[in-house]
Amino acid sequence: MKNKLMFNEDWTHYLRACFVDDIDMTEDVIKSFIYKYKDSQITDFVMNVNGTTSAYPSVTKDSFSDKYLRKSENSTDVDFTDTFAKKAYEIYCEKNLDVYEIWIKALREINIKPWISFRINDVHFNQEKASVVKSKEVEEYPEFWRIRHREANGYYDKALDFGNEGVRNNFLAYIEETLKRYRPDGIEIDFTREPFLFRPGYERRDKKFIDEMMKNIKALCNKYPDKDNNPLPVNVLVCGKISTVVGMGMDVFEWVKKGYIDSVVNIAHWGSINTDYEIDEWKQLLDNRVPFGCGLQILFNVNPDKMKIQLSDVDMAFGQAYANVCSGCDFTYLYNYMDPTEPSIEEFNFDTSVRTKENMSLIVKNIGNINTIKKHNRRHPLTFSDMVPYWERVNSRLPIKFNSRAAQCLRIRTGQIYAEDDAYIILSFERDIEYCDVYVNCQKAEFYKRGGLDRNVIDKDGYMYKIDAPIENYAMIEVIANEGAVMEYAEIFVMPNIE
Q1: Which residue from 402, 403, 410, 404 is spatially nearest to 426, judged by alpha carbons?
Q2: Are the beta carbons of 63 and 11 closer than 8 angstroms?
Q3: Residue 405 — pLDDT band, cuts 50, 70, 90?
Q4: How far apart, in whole angstroms, are the C-alpha atoms of residue 157 and residue 148?
Q5: Which residues does 26 contact at the CB level (< 8 Å), separation at least 6?
């Protein structure tokens, strides 16, 4: 199972790219997009079909093709003819082509399993009066919002309340319509977009409705089996710590126990990669009933109070995957690792970025197998969990201010580091330090040199300390620095020595 690699393609990316490049759409052109992944390690290709809108023309949900024809929405004049809705209309309505139908066929031709992913509660552009991405239905049904006892002016306020039967029935109807239309090899319920499912304070009372909905989803997967007449497996995608997931009403462990789901993926929300999932705890609570995957995100931050849109680098991607698989996760899941064709990412197109064509190809061809992962340099930065319950605050271990000779401790998950590997703990401070003693798993790490950081991602100078002892799973790091020193960054960098 550790060689399984799932890959998520979202519902706007391909349409945007085809619109920006003004591609003449044919069946062969659409098929060629999938054939780019033929020689990769991707085993399961997950096609997201919806936000609040449907990517394909739907009878149960507002779609991009509907948007193309619309001139008025929510008492607002609109014109979406110069957006990617134009490309959706061209493909589905003018040329009578179907992207997902073509992709499913192409994926099977190259022995990759096609999955369909449903975003349960996407909120992209919900704060706008009208948007090509936002369904008109969001404003038409304010009684469905999770915030309706006050003005709904927060980013997540117009997320849907799944305590409402109409919301649940609409979602189930769209799933059934999609399964009738496409017959994939599996489906995914994406709770990361978004996990705000209920009115504030109703998480415990109304969680039973999500439990019942998951039961009904599994029944649909039995009703509409795959091409070989097997019931469709259900994967769920969740973000945050276990207490966050369960506390916000997603009782994954109950769903596993009742047989409603067949695999679970834990992933960062979006604000930063997460290098320290609760893998041991997840595995223990799941009790080997279903496979457990860990997801890789692409944005990178270390301080939630100073968030910025910053891409991680390719060494961080390999670092995340290696640490996760070594620590017991059953497979790797790539989210937002989509083909880098959108012009909006040009400013992040640095040599070591995860979103260059060369690095994206390197990742999908190597990151699904532990034997190929471990051949690559790996960065394991200290980050944070970027999704907590809305009644709590996102916290980070960094920055750390030193007030005395007392050691400050931090933990970084690395997976297996061998004695023959070149491994370093790299620290960065607000300003130059007078002295610094570093211990890794009770062994002193000697100062090596200044430098070592990827300056494309971390625009700071580093202090490198050589790690001589092997590391089994994670490094417990103790740092002693001069009074007033402020540590702003920490990572473990590994250059494997493999014959």
Answers
A1: 410
A2: no
A3: confident
A4: 8
A5: 95, 97
